[in-house]
Amino acid sequence: xxxxxxxxxxxxxxxxxxxxxxxxxxxxxxxxxxxxxxxxxxxxxxxxxxxxxxxxxxxxxxxxxxxxxxxxxxxxxxxxxxxxxxxxxxxxxxxxxxxxxxxxxxxxxxxxxxxxxxxxxxxxxxxxxxxxxxxxxxxxxxxxxxxxxxxxxxxxxxxxxxxxxxxxxxxxxxxxxxxxxxxxxxxxxxxxxxxxxxxxxxxxxxxxxxxxxxxxxxxxxxxxxxxxxxxxxxxxxxxxxxxxxxxxxxxxxxxxxxxxxxxxxxxxxxxxxxxxxxxxxxxxxxxxxxxxxxxxxxxxxxxxxxxxxxxxxxxxxxxxxxxxxxxxxxxxxxxxxxxxxxxxxxxxxxxxxxxxxxxxxxxxxxxxxxxxxxxxxxxxxxxxxxxxxxxxxxxxxxxxxxxxxxxxxxxxxxxxxxxxxxxxxxxxxxxxxxxxxxxxxxxxxxxxxxxxxxxxxxxxxxxxxxxxxxxxxxxxxxxxxxxxxxxxxxxxxxxxxxxxxxxxxxxxxxxxxxxxxxxxxxxxxxxxxxxxxxxxxxxxxxxxxxxxxxxxxxxxxxxxxxxxxxxxxxxxxxxxxxxxxxxxxxxxxxxxxxxxxxxxxxxxxxxxxxxxxxxxxxxxxxxxxxxxxxxxxxxxxxxxxxxxxxxxxxxxxxxxxxxxxxxxxxxxxxxxxxxxxxxxxxxxxxxxxxxxxxxxxxxxxxxxxxxxxxxxxxxxxxxxxxxxxxxxxxxxxxxxxxxxxxxxxxxxxxxxxxxxxxxxxxxxxxxxxx
Length: 770
Ligand SMILES: [Cu+2]
Fold this sequence. Notes:
Elements: H1 3-15, H2 50-54, H3 76-92, H4 122-139, H5 145-158, H6 165-178, H7 190-193, E1 212-213, H8 221-224, H9 227-239, H10 250-256, H11 259-269, H12 274-280, H13 283-290, H14 295-299, H15 303-309, H16 316-337, E2 358-359, H17 382-401, E3 403-405, E4 411-413, H18 418-424, H19 428-431, H20 441-450, H21 471-489, E5 502-503, E6 520-524, H22 534-542, E7 566-576, E8 579-586, E9 589-597, E10 603-613, E11 624-633, E12 638-644, E13 693-703, H23 704-707, H24 718-721, H25 748-755, E14 759-769
Parallel strand pairs: 7-14
Antiparallel strand pairs: 1-2, 3-4, 5-9, 6-9, 7-8, 9-12, 10-11, 10-13, 13-14
């Protein structure tokens, strides 16, 4: 029974003169997740919920009813607690409990509630998006914010009789991530609320379940199953939903939207009544009406009205490509660490052939066992191949002409973001692209591959929380990334004429040697004194009289601090979801950069840091972004800047050191960052190998007055999650590796770094210790 119904029952009983005693916690304890029956709760404990547990406490008539009702159910701490419990309940409803053997007998699996849900299915996604809008409206439907949020949470509960819990979770997550009122609520970390969704397999070769079946890299299961990497991918798709974002502030939205538009949208909900409603209703009453909008109604909405309701996150298509491209670069570095070759595409040339690798999630009971095994050597259905080919030929044509077709039949030039929006495909009402020409190659591939597994939900490729575990995900995304790479490679190379006058040396004195910059100095963080101004320490150790000294080779001592030519990674063990798991992590490191302002003006620069395995350094697509931050350089100054790996702009901050100990985000609705979002710190570096995998560490300084990169906030990942309103870097994502480098393929990148004063690189090994 939902809390809202329970409250209504209490009110009704009081109307009849029944004395109802209320005590603390009956609405806020338990996780608040509802079932789709109604009854009368006469007692409710915090220990459980749902039909099985509540049944013993149900009664039909009880005039001596004692009802546990808390004092003020809408105080913010209670609302947060309730929100958290609801969210956890939605996740828990999808995570089945393994038996002792780790495998749950299929006969006792709970039936899948309602129909299936996949974020990659446009109709499902639209329904989740409608829910995010309803919640935004409900949050504004009462004069007090807290009362509105209470209504929104009631609605989340009530939805469970209608939708799959994952659909509700997604809509709820989008609301809590993007709506100003929603951001007051809390959303627990998925890995804490439902470890069963993120339960990785035993180490490869151990006695346990086969997860990867065949394929080229079963030994990478530890990486693909990484708890925090999976959570990152899930969360990114909430921060960048392809169907668009609901209003940030519903009342502001009502105030800013024309009456004609409001009444046209209301006509979709209540035909013929829009104009009257708008004329006679307050914003609060309008919010109540808007809280009735459904996914099916959104589908029939004129694009101009859809655009009035939703907006696309800034540079959606570009970040869709870039975030996944960076995951691929990291995957390649991980393969390289195992002596394996880089991941090949599952693209048009492969679609008609068999998919060698399979995947078996059944022992992990993801989503209540919804996801099923995909056998090795299966092939896509013929109609899947033919529709994927049709979608691809439209993209090929766009690349050939350099233009995309719009919904009204005209053409628009491809730019850094609209190609990704066509490929994913983002809501056409927001992008203006023709939905028949670009129905969503990327999403469709996820769905078609998922359907090679039996069952309503198919395989793990159907979910953002699980897709990256499957080897085929990486091959599919290589094919998707190839599209963007083709477009990029046809663009003019970057022109570095706007570089700031900053020197990062390639050698000391006149000797410049590739990959041996003395100005990138690496230390173990644990070797540095705590509570010290690291910039000042860097100046002391590596600046001043030491400016021309070389610390980049294995110098044992620098004022008592060892400098390194290798970083180390290791597999750590922890308990997660009642199981021992292993996960990759690395020894914390701090990098010192020596930067010289060769101009006579004070300047602010953006420092960009990248890493690549040396065997892949000729390929711009293999470079991994490690960090990006701004530094002020006084006129003619030689400055040593320290940067800890824990501050990296690509990782989720505050950093999580273990899947067993993750930090929940804050609840500041005005925070400019998406605090839950970012690549896991533990996977910042590739694993490397026992001998020390040779890598190149590169730094580049660009003019911050052009980049408009802000000083990083306290949380989130600036590079992968952007920020509210605007992606925090005016340059193309991945700059300077977003374009081909001029010159011969084998030397172009090396020569560019060697020639440009504002770029430098060095060799650094990554050694894996077990
Ligand atoms: Cu994908």
